[in-house]
């Protein structure tokens, strides 16, 4: 049985304006005998959390009284740590960068909710965005009782991510059962990539989730259909603590199916549809740039699936007002400007008693990602 959201009907929206400042953050640590006991306070933080701030930044935080030991503020950087001490670092409240807050509901039932995420909104907390996220808007909505399961203590959570600059369908679970099932759907699709056995090929035909994106790329793609199997790995990159995802021969398998929808030779750009059968971070951006057609407006990825600019010999050691590193001068993955939209999602219902239901969800297309025929039809 197929159920579908009606993309032509009015979509309900929700969202609360962001406060000027967030609540700050508290980071807790307990000193352990094996590695931390006997260290000075400054040595502990500047070595264990060197990706958060340089040495001078941690000195500033200590002198500001932002660190407590067993509940007492300690401003002496050379204080000696002993086994069992409880350390708390308070990151002071800050104004997060501007971000949209309204979310459209594309589909909702007792088990899940599908949202139309606008570009510029981060899905989960990270970096400068700790409050201005989809997750926070979902939590606020549940606490206000506007969710059907709010009275039962339901806390909807995203089960996959979209890049901050990517728009479109974001699937969220409202129950533990749905979260487990949906997470398995995404994991199963990714695990099949790279295994060409007959058993896995048959299993891939019965995948329980399918994702289709729209993208606008630089240049004219000559082939109507392209399958990209380039592995994706990581490299060191300023401002990205865990490494930047790039095209890499030693990376993990990834598969994207690209289909040309419309070519514009005058503007030297191509509108494409992309179905991804794996879920590597920034996969579409990396794959399309790997074949020589980066997303139009992508500030980060260039031809070959590599960053546009990279100087591994120089990393900025200056620090911001809160002691942390200044925002990197070079582009980072969260930067926006490209055109990528999660357009359609087809999945089996995540509740065990409803698995026979196939749900198709469609997110309205931004005007720049419509074909000429689609634009004329709307007009």
UniProtKB/TrEMBL annotation:
Name this protein carries in UniProt: RNA pseudouridine synthase 5 isoform X1
Occurrences of domain Pseudouridine synthase RsuA/RluA-like (ranges): 112-289
InterPro entries: PsdUridine_synth_cat_dom_sf, PsdUridine_synth_RluA-like_CS, PsdUridine_synth_RsuA/RluA, RluA_PseudoU_synthase
One Pfam family per UniProt: PseudoU_synth_2
Listed GO biological process terms: enzyme-directed rRNA pseudouridine synthesis
Reaction it catalyzes: a uridine in RNA = a pseudouridine in RNA
GO MF term list: pseudouridine synthase activity; RNA binding
Domain of life: Eukaryota
